[in-house]
Design goal:
The complex is a heterodimer of chains A (460) and B (69).
Chain A: H1 2-24, E1 32-33, E2 41-42, H2 62-91, E3 100-112, E4 116-129, E5 134-147, H3 150-153, E6 160-173, E7 178-189, E8 192-205, E9 210-223, E10 235-251, E11 254-267, E12 278-279, H4 281-284, H5 293-299, E13 312-326, E14 330-341, E15 346-358, E16 362-373, E17 383-384, E18 403-415, E19 425-438, E20 446-459
Parallel strand pairs in A: 12-17
Antiparallel strand pairs in A: 1-2, 3-4, 3-20, 4-5, 5-6, 6-7, 7-8, 8-9, 9-10, 10-11, 11-13, 13-14, 14-15, 15-16, 16-18, 18-19, 19-20
Helix pairs in contact in A: 1-2
Chain B: H1 2-16, H2 43-52
Classes of the chains: A mainly beta (460), B mainly alpha (69).
């Protein structure tokens, strides 16, 4: 539409100039006209009404014809603009549908060099009515996990495999400037059951250039042990999540958002399989970064206690996002997250993508992500203790220790639908490689991981 | 904590400063599918990040736990 208006405005201005020029050529109006490099000739007033030999005769009868010619030119340009708009609109789904239905199939494959592999197929469904403002979403996924990490090998355990089932359903309704979104999630493995629900209120203000987000979520996890029913052994973990945020349209090509999350966890989330080696003070000094399992087994003391984490945790994160449309048919997406919690872990995460439009059907983007964190207050590479004097809090979870990870990858999105409905078939492929450096852990000092995800979406 | 506050101020300043009213007919660019402040990672990618990184937040809707790490 803006191009149409600008074109119409320019042509209207040209018409006004043309009309003014016509008024100048009417009898009685002096005019000047440049010749081929010579001095300008000025028509003398005595020549009024006498036609110049090199000019066509303009009479009052000709004016309506000239008007019709100009209007015909205007109509052709407007039609050309309308055709372009229809072509663009066709790429966005064609004529408006009352209800949009989309289904998706996604397969993710993960593998790393510490012996963990995961295959994650999932299906999604989406129904929405843009005019009424309601939408429904559903997802079901399966995680097929196979792991033989050093943590498992160090306990003389064999490679294990497990299948996790997870799903979520959600809906939102926003008929005007205020909308509500509800979401319920679940995840099940034979030794871990998680249930969660959340609600979010969105409010559009300032002619929809400012969006406020307020949300609350509650989760209840039941942590068991493989081969043992939940009734025989289980721990419970509850968590409350509060989200506040705002998104602002800064100018026609820039959107900025700031979101804060507060998570309060209550319960024992210690892993029932993770044993923490204990050392004497002298042997603890001999345990270096990434120490091999054989050396750890040889130097550790007799007690082999299970992991024990504090029974409560408060976590806070502040996330800023930026979406900037660049003049090179590309968009820059930046995200920065600052995190800290009551266990003393502080982290910073930076994520950047530049999404290029390659023609009207292809989007291509490189991606980088940096994450750096310190360890929790009670983190030790080698815990010092004895049978009657164990550290109160102890963990072997490397993701609670100091680490830095760098992910590099990219993705491509192909619109495969027919002309006029290009987005009815969307194929997206992303590939990312991550290198993680563990600065103060045993068994593993670094990890190289790869993730490839393929997603197909179809509109009905 | 002081650095967090400074970041908050900087972000708020960026958010509020140099904002101008954007008329509806100027929002065509904002309709591009990449122009959103919703988190970019898909579900599989977001799950891997949640397991690999000790931090949470910024993901929008609350996710259920899984005990994956």
């Amino acid at each position: 539409m803006p191009r149409v208006l600008r074109t119409l405005a320019a042509l209207a201005a040209a018409l006004a100039v043309a009309r003014a020029a016509l008024a100048q050529t009417a009898p009685g109006a002096p005019q000047t006209e440049p010749t081929d490099g010579g001095p300008q000739e000025e028509r003398a007033p005595s020549d009024e009404g006498a036609p110049r030999a090199e000019e066509p005769i303009e009479s009052d009868a000709e004016a309506p014809r000239r008007e019709r010619v100009i209007e015909a030119v205007l109509e052709r340009d407007v039609e050309a603009e309308r055709a372009q708009l229809e072509a663009l609109r066709g790429g966005c789904g064609g004529p408006e549908r009352a209800i949009n239905v989309r289904a998706g199939l996604e397969v993710g494959a993960y593998h790393d060099d510490v012996g963990v592999g995961v295959l994650t197929p999932s299906v999604t469904g989406h129904v929405d009515n843009p005019l009424s403002g309601w939408a429904l979403d559903a997802r079901y996924l399966v995680d097929v996990v196979s792991a033989a990490s050093p943590d498992i090998v160090s306990t003389a355990s064999r490679r294990w495999s497990e299948t996790r089932h997870a799903g979520n359903v959600g809906g939102r309704y926003q008929p005007g400037n205020v909308g509500v979104a509800l979401n319920a999630t679940t995840s099940y493995t034979p030794d871990y059951l998680a249930l969660g629900a959340s609600a979010q209120v969105n409010e559009d203000l300032l002619a929809k250039t400012l969006t406020l987000v307020q949300g609350y979520g509650f989760g209840h996890d039941v942590i068991g042990r493989a081969g043992t029913s939940f009734s025989a052994f289980s721990r419970e973990l509850d968590y409350h999540t509060v989200t506040l945020g705002a998104s602002r349209v800064v100018n026609p090509s820039l959107v900025v958002g700031v979101f804060g999350d507060l998570v309060v966890e209550r319960g024992d989330q210690s892993k029932p399989y993770r044993y923490v080696p204990i050392f004497s003070a002298a042997n603890a000094e001999r345990i270096g970064r990434g120490e091999a399992a054989e050396t750890v087994a040889r130097l550790r003391s007799q007690p082999r206690p299970l992991e024990q984490l504090p029974l409560g945790r408060e976590r806070g994160a502040l996330t800023a996002r930026l979406a900037l449309r660049l003049p090179i048919a590309a968009s820059l997406r930046l995200e920065e997250r600052l995190y800290l919690d009551s266990w003393g872990l502080e982290a910073s995460t930076t994520d950047a993508r530049v999404i290029f439009d390659v023609g009207s059907r292809v989007m291509l983007w490189p991606h980088v992500r940096f994450h750096v964190q310190g360890g929790v207050d009670f983190w030790q590479r080698a815990y010092v203790g004895s049978a009657g004097d164990l550290p109160a809090w102890r963990t072997g979870d490397r993701e609670l220790g100091p680490l830095a990870s760098t992910a590099v990858g990219g993705g491509v999105r192909l619109a495969l639908g027919s002309e006029g409905r290009r987005d009815d078939w969307l194929l997206t492929v992303t590939v990312d490689g991550t290198n993680t450096q563990f600065f103060d852990a045993v068994y593993v000092s670094s990890r190289l991981a790869g993730l490839a995800v393929t997603r197909l979406e179809v509109a009905f | 904590m002081r650095r967090v506050r400074l970041c908050l101020v900087a972000i708020a300043a960026l958010l509020l400063a140099a904002c101008r009213h954007v008329a509806p007919y100027e929002r065509g660019i904002l309709a591009h599918p990449s122009m959103t402040t919703v988190g970019t990672p898909g579900p599989a990618e977001a799950h891997v990040y949640s397991v690999h990184e000790g931090a949470v937040g910024g993901g929008g809707a609350a996710e259920s736990g899984c005990g994956c790490n």
